[in-house]
Amino acid sequence: MTPTRHGTRPTMNDVAARAGVGLKTVSRVVNGESGVTPAMAERVRAAIAELGFRRNDSARLLRTGRTASIALLLEDIGDPFSSQLARAVEDVAVEQGCLLFTGSSAEDGERERELAMAFCARRVDGLVIVPSGTDHSYLEPEIASGTPVVFLDRPAAGIDADAILSDNAGGTRQGVAHLIRHGHRRIGFVGDLPGIHTCAERLRGYREAMARAHLPVDERWVATGPTDPPRVARAVARLLEGPEPVTALLTANNRITATALGVLAGRDVRPALLGFDDLELAELLTPGLTVIAQDPAALGRTAARVLFERLHGETGQARRIEIPTRLIARGSAETGPPAG
Amino acid sequence: MTPTRHGTRPTMNDVAARAGVGLKTVSRVVNGESGVTPAMAERVRAAIAELGFRRNDSARLLRTGRTASIALLLEDIGDPFSSQLARAVEDVAVEQGCLLFTGSSAEDGERERELAMAFCARRVDGLVIVPSGTDHSYLEPEIASGTPVVFLDRPAAGIDADAILSDNAGGTRQGVAHLIRHGHRRIGFVGDLPGIHTCAERLRGYREAMARAHLPVDERWVATGPTDPPRVARAVARLLEGPEPVTALLTANNRITATALGVLAGRDVRPALLGFDDLELAELLTPGLTVIAQDPAALGRTAARVLFERLHGETGQARRIEIPTRLIARGSAETGPPAG
DNA sequence: CTGAAAGCGCTTACAG
DNA sequence: CTGAAAGCGCTTACAG
């Protein structure tokens, strides 16, 4: 064993010199190509073992013109919903022989852009983006020069691109209809900023369900705004005040639901509660939390598949795919309004 | 605007030709180096804009000898604990100008090895690994040739390497002492496979706390095995059977705690419950779930920092750093044993 | 201030 | 079957 100098790795050239063969012969052996005599191959293998050679894939990929890697840009990889998306994307990537870069935009359009551009500069083969920014035209040149981008959870703004979304409006319609079926007429909607696509769609679903049931919507029942707990807590409290409080609450995402649960825990009379997004332990609460659950695995898997279809040459129009949601009844939304 | 051919990106050479300057001048402008006359710089910038040139960082990095990327190998990026580690590692990586690869070993030593080797073949600057395998000697050549590896959550097996761990034994000691202080004498321990380092350490902490309080441990109180819910449910049920059931339960990780909660939910008489690992909504359960919480942000951050210290030339002995845990009392472990 | 040459570690295309 | 040459898209080292 010739010890390699610390921090310096042997190259194919080193192996070739050691084995006394040409560089290309080493390449052939390393890549398992045919047409090398057993004797030559053996000499090369011996040199490889002696030097501890391992092919540098970054160099190989530079020559090849691809990087065999894709990037996933999330809101926050530390968030359970995001991380489930990541796992699904990773599974498809591995299946396709790709490695996965991940990055968190922290809901910051500027950071999203910087990260996306950094990934593009590395020449990732493609990108999956859960967008935070409000304008994605900066990606147009990248897409035009052959780097496909698929948007996940929210559509792109300002460019035409594939988007894989939950059926936000449909799921909410179904959920609100469920509340109505249990006798509720005054239903509150607590959402995040209405400029966010998912919130807007869920609100639309809420309004449609009410309209279909010929129920009026009092605008005071709709509380949208930032997701910070104090704001949400105030909004929930306000909906439950006055002579005609709402009898049911639809909380439009997981963080809002968690905050609302905390507020309601301190109350004797609790409205029916229906959350958008499932939560860990939801079935162990008292009562169990009824939710409109998204399917993060299907969302991530579909996004990755569409991306690889693009990478494999699919050139059709930008697609918009909606993944169904599922209403999971566990008790919190199956109580009627108080009598009288 | 000269439209670039679809899928083909302009290179510095293209820019140089278009601007009628040398390649090196383009490189200077692109990298903001000084010593270029304003007129030249302007011509280069114009050519860059016309062609839509963007530097290929993969090529640049090949020449430079580093990849400005690190890899994080987790058990499952989709698991909340893992994903919080990932976010912390990412934050440090970004701070250091590095991009982050992530991969999930799925608790499979072979897959861990394949992924780790794939990352090494890409010549990532360093690796953070939450190990699943039982032998990491395959990494020795990589480490020797200058790719630092830091182990996270569990130590390496078979090689000497940095390891960032939770204070598993200490945290459990503190938790069990807490139960003892509330009057418990018969305390059950439900863990996963005792071969897993974290389980072994937590079990050690349990035994030490009992010994310090001069309490005997009946081996029937210790139930270790696979984490699948049926096994855990049976184990919990058995501990609560018989004439002298345990009066308190320590569940040694988040999944076991979740399963135990489900089992206990169906019972009138519930033992005190203390979980290792915090859970979302833990404070909204009835009673609130008392836990020994790990600090995933500190774990991930510390691992990444140690890795970058190695990358910056730190060559001291392998370090083993323990991150403190925190006992969060919420009610489930603060009830004494039934009278009599 | 400017740029031609060599090289990072591989693969591709081609000649022997 | 084998290998020398050119090139992937950049940077480094050096000469003008």
Describe the structure.
2 copies of one chain form a homodimer. Chain A is α/β, with parallel strands linked by helices and 340 residues long. The first copy, chain A, has 3 domains: 44 residues, lambda repressor-like DNA-binding domains (434 Repressor (Amino-terminal Domain), Orthogonal Bundle); 126 residues, Response regulator (Rossmann fold); 128 residues, Response regulator (Rossmann fold, 3-Layer(aba) Sandwich), CATH 3.40.50.2300. In chain A, 41% of the residues lie in helices and 16% in strands. Chain A is built from 12 helices and 12 strands. Chain A has a 6-stranded parallel sheet, with helices on both faces. In chain A, helix 1 packs across helix 2 and helix 10 crosses helix 11. The longest helix of chain A has 16 residues. The N and C termini of chain A lie far apart (88 Å). In chain A, 47% of the residues are buried. The first copy, chain A, binds a DNA duplex (16 and 16 nucleotides) through helix 1, helix 2 and helix 4.
